[in-house]
């Protein structure tokens, strides 16, 4: 279930303050954050935010199409190694018989 419209989007205050300061001074530097739960606001567009995935920081360049999503959606926590081929599964079974 989503968050109430009355409350508005959730953003950690420390992250929002850093972005507002950078917007006022027209700076462009990477902001490191552990806040995967924060919603991306229109003020974040054009900035690079390094989001922690549990092991390292993944740089995420924020575009307009990301507004409304969470930062954690763009910093994956699991590594997909691929599916096994169909022939690999059946070959050992046939050799065992």
Quick overview:
The chain contains 2 helices and 3 strands, in the order H-E-E-E-H. With 97 residues, it is α+β, with helices and mostly antiparallel strands.
Question: How would you sum up this structure, described in words?
Answer:
This protein is an alpha+beta fold. The chain is 25% helix and 13% strand. It is built from 2 helices and 3 strands. It has helices spanning 13-25, 86-96, and strands spanning 31-33, 48-52, 57-61. It has a 3-stranded mixed sheet, covered by helices on one side. The N and C termini lie far apart (51 Å). The model has no long low-confidence stretch (mean pLDDT 90).
Helix content: 10-25%
Question: In DSSP terms, counting alpha (H) and pi (I) runs of 4 or more, how many helices?
Answer: 2
Oligomer: single chain
- Major beta sheet, strand line-up: 1-2-3
Mind telling me the C-alpha Rg?
Answer: 20 Å
Largest sheet: 3 strands, mixed
Distance between the termini: 51 Å
Number of strands: 3
Residue-averaged pLDDT: 90
Strand content: 5-15%
Which series of helices and strands comes N to C?
HEEEH
Low-confidence stretches: none
Shape verdict? elongated
Structure class: alpha+beta
């Amino acid at each position: 279930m989503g968050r109430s419209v009355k409350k508005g989007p959730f953003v950690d205050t420390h992250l929002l303050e850093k972005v507002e300061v950078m917007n006022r001074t027209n700076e462009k530097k990477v902001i490191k954050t552990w806040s995967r739960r924060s919603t991306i606001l229109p003020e974040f567009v054009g900035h690079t935010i390094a989001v922690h995935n549990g092991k390292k920081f993944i740089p995420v360049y924020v575009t307009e199409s990301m507004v409304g999503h969470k930062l954690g959606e763009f910093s994956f926590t699991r590594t997909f190694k691929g599916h096994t081929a169909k022939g690999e599964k059946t070959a050992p079974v046939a050799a065992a018989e």
